[in-house]
Amino acid sequence: MAARIMGFALAIPLALSGCSFQEEVKPPPRLNDAIEVPDGQSTLATDIEMSLAPMRRALESEVPTRLWSLNRANAECVPSQRTEVLGVTLKSPKIKCDLAGAVSRGKLTLRGRGQDLIVTMPIRAKMTANDIAGIIDKKTATASATVTARVRLSVRKDWSVRGKVSINYDWRQPPTVSLLGQKVTFANEADERLSKVIRTLEQTLEREIAKLNLRSQIEPMWERGYSVLSLNSKNPPVWMRLTPRGLGYDGYSASRNAIIVSMRLNASTEIFVGEKPPAPEANPLPDMMERAASDAKLALTLPVIADYDQLEGVIKRALEKRAERPFPVPAIGDRMVELRSVTVYGTSDYRVAVGVEFEAWKSDERDKPASGTVWLTALPHNAENSRKIEFVEPDYQVETTRFTTNVLLEIAKTQDFSSTIEDALTQNFEDDFSELMGKVDKAIASKQFGDFTITTDIEKVSTGQLTAYGEGLFLPVSADGETQIRYAPQ
Whole-model pTM? Predict the structure, then answer.
């Protein structure tokens, strides 16, 4: 019964022998101190996907299809050659010709592989030598090559992106012709012009990499990360509050159409049972953390918090059900009991106060009831990783008149009265706790929260020690496993 409301139960021994009671007492002081949640950091893996399409379009736009052309009259096509014949050095004349040619590119391709962005640009060259030494009318050479650019990215502390570009090319067949018995290559002519094209390609790549603007894509994710997410709508309502604390860069990988930037999000993750907590206030995106967590393991501190209002209903329903029958009181005879109210709250020294206000009368004397409030204060306690919670160091007081004090005390001493409260609160909550965590586990195994998809696999759960605050009962829970957050704006 308690599990449906708050996710765990309490155990309380209410043996009244040896306890002292006082008359005309005031209720225990009610505290309003906030729950002090340990500063447990959660580390969640998250990715940002950046499309390569804008860079691909920019390269196609910036690098012209016709790379360059050549038209040079009376060029030195074949330099003078020295040869020795019969001991005599002879020098052949320079061979002049008119050179014309052009180099064009095919379709640029941009793809990712591992940590490399690879740009491939096929080029084709055609060189023509005309009016060669006034003897040969025309000779034509064709050639092809592939220019390959490899880019490695780096992310700076302010989230700006830079790239180191490495370019090489290789003529599969240099532009070569045979002129007057000599092989002449025009590769130098082609290389001179091609170097300028390669520089344009390199500058375009560097500029487009700087435009990736990773920060502008991270900021919306960071801001929307300050959120309260519903894990379970009812029986009980369960909420997870996510408060980002820092973001670290964890490398990237490149695919055919995108760059996937991997990060580690440090965040406080809190679990609330009951009313929806307020959303945390968002802070601006900080600079990159100096050291990001290297493993992908989930390490969450999940505070389970129960409101005292929920406990009041548990006890009240149990006593009302028992009050349908008379309470046998050995010292004074049977008494009927009518419950007025149950009050539960946090009091001083991390103790819980439980007040039960009721009337009691003989079966035939309804008009002469004894009334008042029995108060219990006690310290909730549990061992680490134990589901058994108990109240220790109990202290009882009665708020009533002298005339009716003994009647209420005798009723409170009965096994029926104390065991009713005890049965309502004293349980081994292993099954109930497992049921609650099972709901949380199922809820976040793979769930869409607006722009976020969270995939989680909780492998191990352990509990800390229960503490009573004015704001509620707090049970720290540690969950170990793996999780992934994917951000995909709608």
Answer: 0.58
